[in-house]
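Researcher: Here's a chain I'd like modeled. Treat it as a single chain, no partners, no ligands.
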Amino acid sequence: MPERQETRVSTSRKDWGVDVAAMAGSLVHEIKNPLSTINLSAQLLQEEWKDADTPKEQRALRRLQVMSSEVQRVERIIETFLRFTERHELSLEVKSLNEMLEDLAEFATAEAERSGVQIRLGLSVDLAPFSFDVDLVRQVFQNLVQNARQAMSPGGGELILKTDRVERDGVEYAIGEVIDTGPGIEADKLERVFELYYSTREGGTGYGLAISRRIIEEHGGFIEVQSVKGKGSQFSVYLPLERKET
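Model: Modeled as a single isolated chain. Structure tokens:
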């Protein structure tokens, strides 16, 4: 990965304090009830006016259809926010990150090759199994791999999955890296890639990276991203080899 003209963003948040998930759940419940009522009323009115024949009635029907569509969009946004704030109960097992990434690469190869993307592995033999939630961490890497593949479509490129063992501030981490040779991310956009609802890709949902960061932080780790415009991006996931009891 080139080092010059590099932009790097590191994420680490531990200041949630209050139980955001409980507050969000209560708020979502209070918002969804009136939204459901509005949506149901709009649908009933659409049914009544489905045979509208005058221009005025047809305009009213179209407005009701827009109303229903917008209410459903707000409901999806709320559901995404709820998933983001939800605290995961980690199911910790001593597993091999190398083996997990090997399985993921095998699973992703067929679709990647259809996009002209070649997957390479660079897994460290020094990285022993350690304790993490396999399903949640796999979800994180699946999202990163999918993002990398989409960034390189339709022109294709190379996607590299690497692991290593590193020390940061006296803490031993397993590091898993997803590196692509795509177009890279502009510096002003890179600062926002972990924001909820923000996406650098047209049609992107904007919550995959936000939820991924949340999952890694729940493990006591963090994610870094480096990017060189026109040369590619590198997402580095740091997971502590030993968890501290809190």
